[in-house]
Design goal:
111 residues, alpha+beta, 3-stranded antiparallel beta sheet, 17% strand
Length: 111
């Protein structure tokens, strides 16, 4: 049996540095697969937290207080920077925030 090279672990920003709130979210053969899982975890939180009229700063503050902070172990590649990714996604999601766009995004996600 071949061991997967990369593992995604997830910390809870609300319980910063409290390992009993950490959980595993899969093992992957490639760094790119593991990074995609991390991005998915962050995107799920940001979409659920985004409210009409929120600024990117408010959304990012919500993430850093209450969101999940995934990271990758294994391999020699650069580490995944969850907060950097979240900051960039906040800009994108807030720019997309127009009447009806959030429903459109949720509809696409549920297909």
């Amino acid at each position: 049996m071949i061991k997967k090279r990369y593992k995604v672990l997830v910390d809870d920003n609300f319980h910063f540095m409290d390992e009993k709130h950490r959980y595993g979210s899969g093992s992957f053969d490639t760094y790119d697969e593991a990074a995609a899982k991390c991005k998915s975890i962050i995107d799920d939180y940001l979409r659920s937290a985004l409210e009409p009229g929120m600024t990117k700063e408010q959304l990012f503050a919500s993430y850093t207080m209450f969101g999940e902070d995934p990271y990758i172990t294994g391999g020699n590649e650069d580490t995944f920077e969850a907060w950097d990714y979240a900051r960039n996604r906040c800009m994108v999601l807030v720019k997309m925030q127009r009447p009806g766009i959030n429903k459109f995004i949720r509809d696409i996600d549920n297909e």
